[in-house]
Write a structure and sequence with these properties.
Layout lengths: L12 H4 L10 H5 L15 E7 L5 E7 L1 H4 L4 E6 H6 L31 E2 L5 E7 L2 H8 L3 E6 L6 H5 L14 E7 L2 H10 L2 E9 L11 E7 L4 E5 L5 H13 L6 E4 L15 H13 L3 E4 L2 H7 L6 E9 L5 E13 L10 H6 L8 E10 L13 H19 L3 H8 L8 E2 L5 E2 L4 H11 L5 H10 L3 E10 L7 E8 L5 E4 L9 H13 L6 E4 L17 H28 L6 E4 L2 E4 L5 E3 H9 L14 E6 L7 E10 L6 E11 L6 H20 L30 E5 L17 H18 L13 H13 L2
Parallel strand pairs: 1-12, 10-11, 14-15, 20-21, 27-28
Antiparallel strand pairs: 1-5, 2-4, 2-6, 3-5, 7-15, 8-13, 9-10, 9-12, 13-14, 16-17, 18-26, 19-20, 19-25, 22-23, 23-24, 26-27
Length: about 775
């Protein structure tokens, strides 16, 4: 029953299954420039939209005059907020709201696609133009006359929290969206009162711009006959985008909207949310009875893409006389920008991630979410996980200096030992697996910490300051959601797998295929992944929080079980045996104790054309199921960074970098290493160069790459990389997720190295980003004070 022309059914799991460093199947298309992005899609008769954005950080909308714009040849319409309200459109509520400490809901005003009362940040869309050509639309947009009454702006969280500050939203007193608290404040206060040692730091996490390779875009279409919309747009999950746009904005059943995402071109969390422009093209497509397309440019991306980070914390650590940690306390704020998007980074995720791999009995977090007249702040790679670990590692370095205990010894003293795992952390998390001291030791060896004194002497001889930074980290991945796993055997011999996460650069097509190949033994090159079509999904949480391999991987694992059970029943029929006597392995169904078997792909072909198949047997091996994805996992690791600083210019360079990670079972080592490298570079960018600045009027000062620095290949060294995996016990694959870990380890490691380099000069504190000017000034100030 074998076909010599087809790949062997056992094929390939050993070379293409879990643990194999399979090159990404996505890369050939992308590297040849053949990727299909939203801007590559054109529909017959489409028109083009251009946005009219606010030039003020805060202003009352008195009127919008579109007469001059409508006179431009080719212009079809100009719409403002009243037009959308008259059409019955609603608004968007935050994707990740959290309650106040007293249980009341977060103060989260609904954001309409176009505001009707006030502009609340520079770049907010106040109107949009639709024309026959993109050029006509952009030219006409410049002619729309905005009658705006400028108002005072609250451009920073400190300004927004000041007594008498202007209100960003009249319904939100004091500009405080949420007052969040966690833990036993009295017990923590008692621990600090009786502690032998306590350290306190004022720490900032600087605002950053996501800057994905491909800017946002949207192409909306409407079919009057069916009353159904189609939206092409980059996203991190079409299922959730469809739900929000249909139910909250269009106010129609979800079945009346289809959302399609092909290639995304990067996101880092930013494209997970619904944006006003997506609603606008859907509205205009119905109003004009033709497709409407919009694409952003880099300037618009700086002004309106959701930014990341932007929080400030007073971080405190209490220790006993031997240096054991007693309690951690965080107090501070997170800047939400003008509209609520995600409050998790400085609330829930700060709680979950701050104690990391250290045995710490008590924790108290008290943070506030603040509205300001700036771009909304959303989820950005790690969404509070890098910050939490950054706070803890900075505190440990400060405690080592205050107590005189070696910083490596202090970490070893407080690492959670492997025999204490599972470990109930004061965050409410239960760490299920990990050997944190072993990972730390491996990293010190990989980074050759023993050889650092000699490297420092060599740097000193060249007039450079050299520093060594060490960071242990642990992050808590996103919580479980419903996820789909579908496996469908096609007539052409391919296998379609379907799930609700979405690949925006992670290599899902390769990784998920490896999981299916491992379970079913099918040929690797026959597997095709479908993620970006809401019509083919019955559930899906999207990608975010490093949960895709846990959610979709588990869903495929269980769907494969269903395929195998279908196959056992069918194989028993063809092999004339009892179902109980059929076993499956390496792609073949075999009668136990015999050499009689049938391959899974052969079985698919056998049943496809078998008209005589008994009615009580499955007609295919296909499986579709929805499952609760596993709970959060706990990827962890240790990073070692070395920097050199030129004291004459303040220039800082990362000159060595080593990392050891525990990601549990690693499905594809090549992809995991690439994800780690990218995350580290992102962390280096925030630590050393990326900074988003608004002036007091809410004008974005760093609005282009002339003003905003991104890390390049020349800014980083080659990385030393190793793994010490301890499989997770909470999911059948034993995976833990890896997408955000590089950034989570990099922030504290790089900043620790910078401060170690500056310590001989008496410099104890400096905030990110450590730009050359900031370092130069710190060195000069230290010299003048001695």
């Amino acid at each position: 029953m074998t076909d010599p022309a087809m790949p062997q059914d056992s094929a390939s799991a050993g070379h293409y299954g879990i643990g194999a460093a399979v090159p990404r199947t996505e890369d050939e298309v992308l590297l040849r420039g053949l990727g299909r992005y939203t801007d590559d899609i054109d529909l017959p008769g489409q028109a083009f939209a251009a946005m009219v954005r606010s030039p003020f950080g805060h202003a009352r909308i008195l009127g919008i005059d579109s007469a001059a714009a409508l006179a431009v040849p080719g212009v079809l319409a100009v719409y403002d907020g009243r037009d959308l309200i008259d059409a019955g459109l609603g608004g968007v509520v935050p994707m990740a709201g959290v309650p106040n400490y007293d249980g009341t809901p977060m103060h989260a005003p609904t954001r309409l696609p176009l505001p009707i009362d006030r502009a609340r940040f520079v770049g907010e869309v106040l109107a949009f133009v639709v024309a026959e050509t993109d050029t006509a639309a952009r030219e006409a947009a410049e002619l729309v006359a905005l009658d705006l009454d400028p108002l005072p702006a609250a451009a920073t969280a400190d300004a927004a929290l000041a007594p008498g500050a202007v209100l960003v939203h009249d319904t939100v007193a004091g500009n405080v969206a949420v007052d969040y608290r966690w833990g036993d404040a009295d017990a923590v206060a008692e621990a600090f009162a009786t502690a032998a040692h306590a350290v306190r730091l004022e720490l900032e996490s600087n605002r950053v711009v996501a800057n994905p390779l491909e800017p946002r875009a949207a192409l909306g279409d409407y079919d009057p006959a069916s009353g159904r919309w189609t939206l092409h747009t980059p996203s991190q999950g079409v299922f959730s985008i469809r739900s929000v746009l249909a139910r909250e904005v269009l106010k129609v059943p979800v079945e009346r909207l289809r959302v399609l995402t092909d290639k995304v071109g990067g996101s880092f969390g930013m494209k997970i949310a619904v944006f006003p422009e997506q609603a606008m093209v859907l509205f205009a497509a119905r109003a004009l009875k033709r497709p409407v397309k919009w694409r952003d440019d880099r300037s618009g991306a700086f002004l309106a893409d959701h930014h990341g980070r932007d929080s400030a914390m007073t971080a405190e650590l209490a220790l006993d006389a031997e240096g054991r940690f007693l309690a951690v306390r965080l107090t501070g704020w997170g800047n939400l920008g003008a509209w609520p998007v995600a409050a998790l980074p400085f609330t829930v995720n700060a709680v979950k991630n701050v104690v990391g791999v250290y045995g710490t009995p008590l924790l108290h977090v008290a943070t506030r979410g603040v509205y300001t007249n700036t771009v909304p702040v959303g989820a950005y790679r790690g969404a509070g996980r890098p910050e939490g670990n950054y706070y803890m590692e900075r505190l440990i370095d400060a405690a080592a200096m205050a107590t005189g205990i070696d910083r490596l010894a202090l970490r070893r003293l407080n690492h959670i030992p492997p025999d204490a795992v599972p470990y109930a952390a004061p965050s409410g998390m239960r760490y299920d697996s990990g050997d944190y001291p072993a990972v730390f030791g491996d990293a010190l060896r990989l980074g050759d910490c023993a050889g650092f004194p000699e490297r420092r002497r060599e740097s000193t001889a060249r007039g450079r300051l050299r520093g060594l930074g060490i960071a242990s980290f642990l992050e808590v991945t996103a919580p479980s959601v419903k996820e789909m796993g579908g496996i469908r055997f096609e007539r052409d011999g391919t296998v379609t797998i379907t799930t609700g996460t979405l690949d925006y650069g992670q290599g899902h097509g390769t990784t998920f295929a490896q999981v299916v190949v491992e379970r079913l033994g099918i040929p690797f090159d026959c597997v095709r992944l479908v993620q970006g079509d809401s019509d083919q999904l019955v559930a899906g949480g999207g990608s975010g929080g490093s949960r895709s391999i846990m959610g979709s991987g588990t869903a495929f694992f269980r769907a494969a079980d269903e395929v195998i059970e279908h196959g056992r029943r069918l194989a028993a029929h063809y092999l004339e045996a009892a179902v109980a006597d059929i076993e499956f392995g390496r792609g073949r169904f075999t009668i136990v104790g015999t050499d009689r078997s049938i391959g899974i792909m052969d079985l698919v072909r056998q049943i496809r054309d078998d008209a005589a198949l008994p009615e009580d047997l499955p007609r295919a091996l296909d499986a579709t199921l929805v499952t609760d994805s596993p709970p959060s996992a706990f990827p962890n690791g240790a990073h070692v960074a070395e920097v050199e600083i030129d004291p004459e210019t303040g220039e800082t360079q990362v000159v060595r970098y080593a990392m050891v990670n525990d990601f549990g079972t690693v499905v594809n080592p090549l992809i995991v290493q690439g994800q780690s490298h990218g995350g580290v570079v992102q962390g280096i960018g925030q630590a050393l160069m990326e900074r988003t600045i608004y002036d007091s009027h809410g004008q974005l000062v760093t609005g282009s790459f002339l003003d905003y620095a991104l890390p390049r290949a020349a800014d980083v060294p080659s990385f030393a990389y190793a793994e010490r995996p301890v499989p997770a016990t909470t999911n059948p694959l034993g995976v833990k997720g890896c997408g955000e870990a590089g950034c989570t380890g990099a922030l504290p490691a790089v900043m620790s190295a910078v401060l170690d380099a500056l310590a001989p000069l008496g410099i104890r504190h400096i905030d990110m980003p450590v730009t050359p000017e900031k370092v130069w000034r710190a060195i000069r100030d230290a010299a003048s004070s001695t």
